[in-house]
Amino acid sequence: MLTAEMGAAEDRMLRLSQRARNRHDFCVMTRLRLTLYTNWDKSDRGLDVFLEWLRRDGTDWSKHRPRRRDARVRTDLDAARQSQIEDLVDLPLITDPEVLDTLDVFSDAVTPSFFFDEHLSSLVVCRLVSLSLEYGNCDASCYGYAWLGFLAGPRFGDLGDGYRSANLGSTWSRNAA
Questions:
Q1: Residues 112, 174: Cα–Cα separation, whole Å
Q2: How many helices (H) and strands (E) does the chain have?
């Protein structure tokens, strides 16, 4: 991938992902494949990889907008709104490696989903934030908070929460560094 041999990188990553022996290895390969397809301007293929990863973990989402997706986004967004956004910076750090892997995969799925479908990207971002609310903060959390800030105004008409969420993302990343 670093030498711009995208076809060869795709083939190698596919073979490596088929040899993954545990969930962590599969998450790492999923993230690498998402990066490949995002850089190769093939977001739809990246999302196929992400959705395959979700199905492996027991969640079945579609690339195209099912009716219940907006309800899921609204549920996750409401969970974020129930908290004082500024207080989220004080959530504990996540130490569970499986949760960290999950949040990392979700964070790598944000960009290709944004380029593919606004409803899917909202779902990915809101789920990333809701998992952070449930388990605590990590590097992927600040990315989710910043993206939620980006989406909250135009997508959900809430500029105030959008500003506070984006500010939280930058505050947490400065504090973590």
A1: 26
A2: 8, 0
Give the SS3 label for residue 119.
helix
Residues of the chain with pLDDT under 50: 177
- State both tokens at 96: 């569970």
Residue 167, pLDDT score: 60
Q: Which amino acid would we find at residue 122?
A: S
Q: Which pLDDT score, from 0 to 100, does residue 62 have?
A: 82
Whether pTM exceeds 0.90: no
> Which residues make beta-bridge pairs with 93?
137
CA–CA distance, 106 with 129 (Å, rounded to integer): 10
What does 127-145 look like in DSSP terms, one character per residue?
Answer: HHHHHHHHH-B-HHHHHHH
- Which of 17, 174, 23, 177 shows the shortest CA–CA distance to 99? 23
